[in-house]
Amino acid sequence: MRQAVPVPGDPHDDEPGGQAAETVRQLQALATPAGGAALTRARELLAGRADAVTALTRLRAEVGVELAGPAWGIARQRERARPVFGADADRLFFTADALEQAGRPVLADRRAARLLAGGVRSVVDLGCAAGTDTIALARAGATVVAVDLDPVARELTRLNTAASGLPGVEVRDADAVQLVAAASEGRVAGCDAAVLDPARRAGGRRQLDPDRWSPKWSTVQALLDAVPTCLVKVAPGLDHDRVPAGVEAEWVSMGGSIVEALLWGRAPSRTWRRATVIDRDGGVHELTADADPGDAEPGPVRGWLHEPDPAVIRSGLVSLAAAELDATLVDPTIAYLTSDAAADSPWVSSYRVSEVLPFNLKKLKALLRARGIGRVVVKKRGSPIEPEALARQLRGPGEGSAVVVVTRVAGAPTVLVCDPS
Ligand SMILES: C[S@@+](CC[C@H](N)C(=O)[O-])C[C@H]1O[C@@H](n2cnc3c(N)ncnc32)[C@H](O)[C@@H]1O
Fold first, then answer.
1. What is the position in ligand 1's atom list of the atom closest to the CA of 150?
2. What percent of the chain has pLDDT over 90?
3. 97 lines ligand 1 (CB under 6 A)
């Protein structure tokens, strides 16, 4: 299927015969029994690992030219979606663009549960894309109005809510900017709560500047000001200075990587900042501060180095983790902690330090050779080195392994050689 989804607001979005109209038509064809059969066959051919040309030729011969291309396109997106959406992927519809923008269902469920906890019954999803948030909110029991400027997104949401057994969702062609501007008595589109997940990509590139998101930052701000029960998904790199007073900002990590950043409206807000760390076993750990806890104190490198989880760093809560671990910063400007003892803590990964030396490639290589270390994982913070390139340079015949941390200690470029954890 043709994957290009028009930029929201693009005037040709709704043109009959335009790209979007054609994609909508193809999606509707796939929702028929014949389309379903074509999708099943496309999945089988994909699973058979035949090359794309051969598989598509067979598919065309078996299900017809009209359905073959669209079915192949959706089957490929379902395959990409499976690691995150699990078995649900096989009944959902995505374009490449919508899948790129989709959040993780497990996180959407978590957000929906918190937003609805205060007795919220209806929610407007301002920019529904393929409907991940809409589905989570409807499954959690809310009546949902899902809006999007993009006709393809609206069709995906219609199909995906129906496929999820949630036919009661209302899907509307509306501009989130106008709906937020028209908010009245703390409600948007007459709903008790609002969810806004601005598009933060354009032309395949991440838009770092919130004034270039769609809707722009001004709409995020207007929503947070006008609607107490709301939730906005933002970029993890959002500047703390942008977070309005009374709004809780939460950074969430999974398996050591940031997966989302959220601004909670003034009604569901419970604290100033929250770092939520979801560990590899699915355990959820939350670190919160009701006011800025300030920076941790620096101190000399001790027997253990602790690398804070990115959610702890981004939320500005490193000093809380430091206090729990009786740890200090290796440098006032670097988020590595050090202490005398190992830490069993969700907030950090810990490494025993075996050597501390000024950064010097020749001396580092000699040291590793002398210790029989041939394989290293390089970590860095506050250094311009390329970790993978340095790891290759440090590879040697030795059987041993180490974690090499390149950073600054009290302002000086320094290497910490650590035992693997
Ligand atoms: C990041 S996606 C939403 C993803 C969705 N929450 C999910 O998890 O699948 C943003 C969506 O907002 C839509 N959008 C952007 N600007 C909009 C506007 N002014 N009004 C309505 N929808 C808009 C885009 O078309 C896109 O589908």
1. 25
2. 91
3. no
Residue 57: C-alpha distances to residues 32, 46, 65 (Å): 22, 13, 9
What is the model's pLDDT at position 120?
Answer: 96
Residues of the chain within CATH 3.40.50.150 domain(s) are 100-289
Query: In the CATH scheme, what is the homologous superfamily, with its name and number, of domain 100-289?
Result: Vaccinia Virus protein VP39 (3.40.50.150)
Where residue 12 falls among pLDDT bands split at 50, 70, 90? Answer: very low
What is d(CA 251, CA 317) in angstroms, rounded to the nearest whole number? Answer: 11
For 378, the token pair is: 């390089």
**What residue type is assigned to position 279 of the chain?**
D
Strand spans (E) along 90-213: 122-126, 143-147, 170-172, 193-196, 201-202, 205-206
pLDDT greater than 80 at residue 16: no
* Ligand 1 nearest-atom number relative to CA 177: 19
Lowest mean pLDDT among 2-16, 220-234, 277-291: 2-16
Number of H helices, E strands in the chain: 14, 18
What's the rounded Cα separation, in Å, for the pair 403 and 421?
8
Pocket flag, ligand 1, residue 74 (CB < 6 Å)? no
Task: Please tell me the predicted confidence (pLDDT) of residue 105.
Answer: 97
pTM above 0.90, yes or no: yes
Tell whether the torsion through CA atoms of 239, 244, 245 and 249 is positive or negative: negative
* Paired sense of beta strands 284-289 and 273-278, if any: antiparallel
